[in-house]
Amino acid sequence: MSDYLSSPVLMNGAVGILLLCWAFNLVFTSVMNVRREKENARAPISRIETDITDLRTELDALKRRVDAHDDDVSDLHAGQSAMCRGVQALLEHELHNGNEDEMKAASEGIGKWLRNR
Asked: Helix %, strand %, coil % for the chain, to 5?
């Protein structure tokens, strides 16, 4: 038993443990370096993907604004059409000595547009 605890055996054991630690450290460091290189290679792609996401968000906001303006334009067009029908009904009323149905329909159209705003 004393042969196993002699100085050369302990020294060889310590060297073996140090070699195992060195090998583990070498493999671990290599794996970490490979991962870091992959991340560095992917970094420009990640920045571009982030920029694309930001641009899509901005475009969606702009599309909603344009759609809102389209709705406003449609509403204004409907109102102006109602006003034109009203003015036309007034003119025809004056020219033809009154058509009460046309006047009432024009007035209701204008009123409906004004209430729905």
From this structure: 90, 0, 10
Per-position pLDDT tens, the chain of length 117: 455 566 787 888 889 999 999 999 999 999 999 999 998 888 888 889 999 999 999 999 999 998 888 877 877 888 888 887 777 777 677 666 666 777 777 777 777 777 776
> Based on the structure, what is the number of domains in the chain?
1
Report the Cα 62 to chain-centroid distance in Å: 11
For 75, the domain range is: 7-116
Residue 71 corresponds to which tokens in the numbers above?
Answer: 């709705």
- Residue 109 CA to residue 103 CA, distance in Å, equals 10
In a domain, 83, yes or no: yes
Q: Burial, 63: exposed, middle or buried (Cβ in 10 Å; 0-12, 13-18, 19+)? A: exposed
Closest to 104 (Cα-Cα) out of 117, 76, 85: 85
| Three-point CA angle 69, 87, 82, nearest 5° | 35
